Amino acid sequence: MKRLALLAAAAASLAFGANGARAETWAIEHVTLIDGLGHAPQSDMTVTVEGDKITAVGPSVLMKAPKGHVIDGRGKYLMPGLMDVHIHLHGGVDNATDTNETRTQALASYLYSGVTTIYDAGNQPENILPLRAAERAGKIASPRIFCTGNLITYPGSHGTGMAVNVQDFEKDKDKLDKQIAEQQPDMIKLTLEEEGWGARPMIPLMPDQLLRDVIRYYNLHGIRTTIHVSSELRAEEAIFAGTDSLAHPVIQGPVSDSFVKLMAAKKTPFMSTLTIGENYSRLVEHPEFLDQPLYAASFSPADRQTLKTKVRAEYQTRLWTSWMKLMTPVAMENIRKVWAAGGVVAAGTDQSSGPALQRELELLAQAGIKPFDILTIATHNGAVLLGKADTLGSVEPGKFADLLLLNADPTADIENVKKIAWVMKAGEIVDESKLPMAGGQQKRRFTPQ
Ligand SMILES: [Zn+2]
Fold it and tell me: 140: CA distance to ligand 1 center in Å?
């Protein structure tokens, strides 16, 4: 009998997912709550979690004796799990080290860094789709994975190597049907990019009518769209072609006042992606960032060494490094202006590790956005961009219990988002000691009573 019960418990723990612990009932008491929706932080709150959902949120004084595990949240800060809505999942520092194992390690690095949702904005389908399926089946320790699979572009245009290439809507419609049927994109990514992207020669651009037709076709299948753009001109065209979001801020030059007004009026969400441009000069000028605890946990010693030597030497000689160093502050100011006018920015890195999202938050702070607002940008706004705000991105009853408990006030200093007490995904507190981290086994941050 006892043996049977143990077997049943083992089966339940498998059913409940990656960290080996069954999702249970929790009450986080006397905590300062940052709900992700932009409401002022509320002190002395209780949040209860049953199974994979948040069941109640209220002042501790009004909440009757909660059942399940009680966590004393005094002096701590509870917020939604972070979302990185622009990544391209790969493992290790180059193609040679990109394997399913290293991709799994990269996924673990997100959970370790407090990121509970990612959107992969373009990948080889065979690299990302099996991992999305494994995550949804609770078979791997991973943030929630949303992805496009292949992106869509015009032959020879930006991203053509990982794209379904479309030239003529009527003739190529079956390619889109196949992409939808086989890859089931959570949101489809297109590219609209031509000459002047960095120092590249002119490359072909998707014609406007084709862009409209593809966007409409995906929307008619219930699928949202996002578009890679880097200039104000193409961003505006993408918006009026009907896109649901933009995959980057304007990077190529300062935005005009009318573009700021457009973004504030339309509220088309866009991904911040400052980290991708900044990472080149950062590695050249400050390679020691790789010794920070999050990076040491998330990258193998060999990869950190390769980054500090071979990759750094490459970056030192690349024009791209100087170009991006010059343009990142321009992109920062563009983001700040659109945000200040009421536009919707969501945190995304265009990178492939959890620490990169934490870096994105630092850069948004450097752009002049207050830490409190960055927390909304990195949670609720990501959910809005993905069309998932009904289930993700905020601390409210009925939402998935994807939560981050912090030991220090993130509204006082964005660095405090790294002071993680625990990470919860789908009602389960992550056991860091069981994550397959590239930097080796980590200590569990929190042991439930
Ligand atoms: Zn990208």
Answer: 24
What fold, for 2-80+397-434? Urease, subunit C; domain 1 (2.30.40)
Task: Identify which has the larger pLDDT, 12 or 241.
Answer: 241
Q: Which CATH number fits domain 82-386: 3.20.20.140, 1.20.1600.10, 3.40.190.10, 3.30.420.480?
A: 3.20.20.140
Q: What is the pLDDT of residues 169-209, one digit of tens each?
A: 999 999 999 999 999 999 999 999 865 455 555 778 899 99
How many angstroms does the Cα of residue 402 sit away from the middle of ligand 1? 25
Ligand 1 centroid to Cα of residue 58, in Å, is: 39
CA of 112 to the centre of ligand 1 (A): 22
What does the pLDDT read at residue 64? 76
Every domain of the chain with CATH number 2.30.40.10 lies at 2-80+397-434
Distance from Cα 224 to the centre of ligand 1, integer Å: 16
Tell me, in angstroms, the distance from the centre of ligand 1 to residue 221's CA: 23
pTM over 0.90: yes
Residue 122 has pLDDT above 50, yes or no: yes
Distance spanning both ends of the chain, measured CA to CA: 27
Q: Give distance in angstroms: CA of 392 to centre of ligand 1.
A: 22
pLDDT digits (tens, 9 = 90+) for 62-115: 987 777 899 999 999 999 999 999 999 998 887 778 999 999 999 999 999 999
